[in-house]
Amino acid sequence: MTRAESPSPSFCCAVVGGQRLSFSTSPELFQWCCCSRHRPLFRIMVCFRLSLMPGSGLVSLCLVLGAVSAYALELNLMNSEKATCLYAKWQMNFTIRYETTNNKYKTVTISGLGNATYNGSTCGDDQNGPKIEVQFGSGFSWTVNFTKEVSTYSIENISFSYDTHDNTTFPDAKEKGVFTVHYPVAFRIPLDDIFRCNAILTLQENMVVQHYWDVHVQAYVQNGTVSTKEFLCDKDKTTTMVPIVPTSLPSPTTTPTPKEKPEIGSYSVNNSNGTCLLATMGLQLNMTHDKVASVVNINPNTTDFTGSCHSQTALLRLNSSNIKYLDFVFAVKNENRFYLKEVNVSMYLDNGSVFSTANNNLSYWDAPLGSSYMCNKEQTVSVSGAFQINTFGLRVQPFSVIEGKYSTAEECSADSDLNFLIPVTVGVALGFLIIVVFISYMIGRRKSRTGYQSV
């Protein structure tokens, strides 16, 4: 459509909460209204007006908000031929640690993105690559840039900015201003593929931790059709590890000094509806780094905790002066049970080096939704060959917390009252066997005597 062919005046249509609204526009501005083909859940359709600039096509932007239980954010950029040129849907949140005026530190989690706008998002041109720009909350902005090569495109880098002038979000912040963190990503994806990562991706830069999950993005959509061929992130790939048989005996590792049991701490995560995750546990970390084994007890009195709650996943993050992060990621399975799916850790060791490992294919602490999981006796969560977590006095409930209290607990097998029956049963069986043998012996002896009579 050319400038001369545009209607005057034109109208924008939007559907908000089931109501159809129309807005008139001036002859100098054009409006495309996009229609969603996704399943009919509650959503908000927003159509942005973009001016027609000389030498560039008319780019329309269709933004679908809502259906938050499926995807918090969804973006569909279209070119002048009304063909999709960039498509993305994803979820994300941010944890920011900042210093207060009394020289202490506070942590805030930013997860409510329902008021997001996408000003500045573009499909790119011959000089500049595509990018997604998101604005939300009070002074938050997020940008991701893409680049293209012959047969691949890359998620090049991610930028996140926040403004500590917002006293509601950052009360008593010592430094006031706009702060920006940049994180190089450099995921390289085949040009005809859509990038997918359902697992939680964690990026950390300075005092900002970024979490992304349920990510689907294709920056260079071919022929206006989003690809069904997926390029998976490493965490979504199923790989088989080939064992390596050493040709010589390994050097002995240093045996760590045994530690006393850790202190039991209480942790919680809140969202707009109140407390959404509860955890009570004593944690002992066992790790081997450069053939040196060490044991660290987590002190709950000097440990900070944050996290987030969603319909299918929940996160508890611990950090302290020597622990950059220790993540416990819970997930829902079969729509009626929860379990510990993932553990990520990065911490500073005594020698100044950093120890990091992760495992997103765990299966611990399984219990029905609406209940909690409890295990008073010591348990071991084996994250990797070099890292295990011993838990003491454990109780967790990552979903369906009511009034900030634990629901009825499902006990681990080690705590079960039936455990005492095992030794009792074995003892009874052995006693019965001894009696049977003794009776058989006596009967056999009596029969042998009846064959001989005195003369």
From TrEMBL:
Q: Where is the Lysosome-associated membrane glycoprotein 2-like transmembrane domain?
A: 422-453
Q: Which GO terms describe its cellular component?
A: autophagosome; late endosome membrane; lysosomal membrane; plasma membrane
| Membrane topology designation | Single-pass type I membrane protein
Output the GO biological process annotations, alphabetical, semicolon-separated. protein targeting to lysosome involved in chaperone-mediated autophagy
Q: Return the InterPro entries for the record.
A: Lamp2-like_luminal (IPR048528), Lamp2-like_TM (IPR048524), LAMP_CS (IPR018134), Lysosome-assoc_membr_glycop (IPR002000)
**What compartments host this protein?**
Cell membrane; Cytoplasmic vesicle, Autophagosome membrane; Endosome membrane; Lysosome membrane
Q: Where is this region: Disordered?
A: 244-266
Query: Which keywords accompany this UniProt record?
Result: Autophagy, Cell membrane, Cytoplasmic vesicle, Disulfide bond, Endosome, Glycoprotein, Lysosome, Membrane, Signal, Transmembrane, Transmembrane helix
Q: Where is the composition biased (Low complexity)?
A: 244-257
Q: Does the keyword Cytoplasm apply?
A: no
Q: Does the keyword Membrane apply?
A: yes
Q: Output this protein's name.
A: Lysosome-associated membrane glycoprotein 2
Origin organism is Molossus molossus
